[in-house]
Amino acid sequence: MSTTFADLHVAAPLLERLREQNMETPTPVQAEAIPVIWEGKDALVESPTGTGKTYAYLLPILSKADIDKKDVQAIVLAPTHELVMQIARVAEGLLPGQDTAVLPLIGGVDVKRQIEKLKKKPMLIVATPGRLLELIDQRKVKLHEVKTVVVDEADRMLDAGFGKPVFDVMKRTLRDTQRLFFSATIPEAIIDQASAVTKDEVVIRASAPEGAQGVAHLYLLTDPRKKVDTLRRLLRLVNVRSSIVFVNQIDKVDEIVSKLNYHHLPCRLLHREATKEDRARTIQQFRDGVFPVLITTDVSARGIDIPGVECVVHYDPAPDADTYVHRSGRTGRMGRAGLVFSVITSQELFIIRKFAKQTGLSITEKIMAHGALQDPKESRGGKPAEKQTETRQKPAKTGKSKPAVSKAGAGTKNGKIGKPRT
C-alpha cells in the first residue's frame, strides 16, 4: 500500500491545497524526509532536481507551525533572488488567506519596505543570507522562536561565496534549532561542513519517483567555428516547446542570440547584470511560452523551477560533474521525459567522458543526419536511423508535448540519473 500525505501527518488544510494541485502521492524524497523533519532531527537531504524537495520541507514545517503565534518560526535560505521568490510562492500557495504569513527577503530592493512588512509578524521567512543578516544586525528580525532553518541548494550555499553568511545565521539561532540541508547533490565535503552546526544529523539520499520517463543524455561533436550553427540545427531538429541553453561566459551570447533570432528561433538572455524586474519578466515569459529558448549562465539559472522544460543544451561544458547534474536537472522534472545535449569540440570530449564516469550516466554520441539524431556508426553507411530514434515531430498544440526522443530516456537510481533505457 502506497504512502499518502495524510499518512505523513500533513495538516488537513495543506492536504486540501495538495488535492487542488492533484498531488496525491508523495515522491520518495517527501516520503523519506517528512517523517525525519517531524521528529525534529537535523538532516542532509539529497534528491534529483525536480523531485519535490521544496514540498518535502515546507509541508512538515507549515504543518507544525502555530499560525496564531506572531513570531518567525522557520527560515529558508536560498542563493538567488529567483529561488527565494519561487519558494515563497509555493509556501503562499499552501497558505491561502494568510497574506502576511510568508515574507521573502532579498537584496537589491528597498530595505525600508521589507522592515515595514516585518512588522506584520510573518511566520516563515525565505531569504538570501546577506539581506537576512543585515536585518538581524539591525534587530529587525528576531530568531528566538525559530524552530527550523532550511538551507536550499546546500552544495552551493556552503561554498566559498555563501558559506560564511549561512553559518553566521545558523550561529545566531538557538542551540536546539533544527537544521536542514537540501540539494540535488550533497557530497561528503558538504556533510563535513554541515556537521559544524548539526547534531546527530540524518543523511537521506532519495531516488526519483518510480515510473519516471527519464532523461536521455547525449553529445554532439562539432568544429569550434560551427558551434553556433550546430546549436541552431539541433534546436530546430528536436523541435520542442522550451529549451534552456547554458553558456559559461556572457560575451559569447550575442552571436548565439543574433543567429537564433535570424533563423526564427526566438530566444532571450537571462543574466545576473539584468535588473531584478527584467529577470523576473524574462523567466515568466519563458514559463508562459512567449519564446522557446532561454540562454543563461549557471549563476542566473540555479534553482529555477520551470516544469515544462523539455531540453537542456550545454553549449559550453559544465565546470564540474555536480554542475552538469544541476544544469541537466532543469529538464525531466517530477519524472517527465527530457533531453540533455552537450555541444562539444573534440578537445572537450574528455570532459564528457569524465562526467559520465563520475556520475554513472551513459552520455551517448549522436550526429544529425537525414532529419534525425543518429548513432555515428549507423550514419557511416548512409543508412537512415532506426525509426525509434527519429526526433522530428510536429509542433505540439497543447502544453503536454513530450520531448522528441522518449524511448532513449533514462531512469534514475540511488539519487542519480540512471542509464538510458533500451
Low-confidence stretches: 382-422
SS content category: alpha/beta
Q: Identify the CATH homologous superfamily of the largest domain.
A: P-loop containing nucleotide triphosphate hydrolases
What distance lies between the first and last C-alpha atoms, to the nearest angstrom? 30 Å
Instruction: Indicate the proportion of strand residues.
Output: 15-25%
CATH topology of the largest domain: Rossmann fold
The total tally of domains equals 2
- Output the radius of gyration: 22 Å
Number of strands: 18
Number of helices: 16
What's the rounded overall pLDDT mean?
Answer: 83
Major sheet: order of its strands?
Answer: 3-4-2-5-6-1-7
Tell me what the CATH architecture of the largest domain is.
3-Layer(aba) Sandwich
By CATH reckoning, the class of the largest domain would read: Alpha Beta
Sheet bearing the most strands, described? Answer: 7 strands, parallel
Overall helicity: 25-40%
Overall, the morphology is globular
Key terms:
422 residues; alpha/beta; Rossmann fold; 2 domains; 7-stranded parallel sheet; 18% strand; RNA strand annealing activity; DEAD_box_RNA_helicases; Helicase_C-like; nucleotide-binding; helicase
What does this structure look like?
The chain is α/β, with parallel strands linked by helices. The chain folds into two domains: 12-205, P-loop containing nucleotide triphosphate hydrolases (Rossmann fold, 3-Layer(aba) Sandwich); 215-420, P-loop containing nucleotide triphosphate hydrolases (Rossmann fold, 3-Layer(aba) Sandwich), CATH 3.40.50. 34% of the residues lie in helices and 18% in strands. It contains 16 helices and 18 strands. It has helices spanning 12-20, 28-38, 53-64, 81-94, 111-118, 129-137, 154-157, 163-171, 188-194, 227-238, 253-262, 276-287, 298-301, 321-328, 349-359, 376-380; strands at residues 43-46, 74-77, 102-105, 124-127, 148-151, 178-183, 202-205, 215-221, 243-246, 267-270, 293-296, 311-314, 338-344, 363-365, 367-369, 372-374, 410-413, 416-420. Strands 3-4-2-5-6-1-7 form a seven-stranded parallel sheet, sandwiched between helices. Strands 10-11-9-12-13-8-14 form a seven-stranded parallel sheet, with helices on both faces. Mean pLDDT is 83; it is low at 382-422.
